[in-house]
Here is the input.
Amino acid sequence: MDSWSTQLNSQIDEKLKGVNEKDIRFFRIDEFKRNVSRIDTFSSSCHECQQQKQYIQEAVDSIDKAIKNVGSKRRDYDKLISKLSKHMQKEHGFYAPYYFTYMYSFLGIVAGGLIGYLVMNLNPEYQLELFCLGFAIGLLPPYVVGSVKDKKIRRQKKLM
Here is the structure.
């Protein structure tokens, strides 16, 4: 007997036969199928995963309509994908590729820019150089730290 997620994934494949590959990527079908498998895995120990099974079943039943037609089915499907992804990230530690690199780099740029601006105002003779130095110092270390954390996520096979 197949597992719940295997049956749903094959049902998704059957309903989406003949759908354009571009639409499948746009509507994040592969991510949805991976999250269905994860929900099945974690549903025995996670109450929220158990609750999501009903919504997933409803989405799978109408996935062909959601992809082909604009309307409430598509909105519901989109909300479900976002909700599943957030849950997997918060509760089970699955992250998008380069999540920490991008997040830490952005925060580092903001912090480095502010520090560079403050130091620039203290010494008007070297304004541009001090601003660029603060920017670079704010960018490089967070980028490295984020990259290391992303590599750890990849090694643990926790990519969304």
Q: What stands out?
A: The chain has a mean pLDDT of 88. Residues 99-155 form one domain. The chain has two domains: 4-92, 99-155.
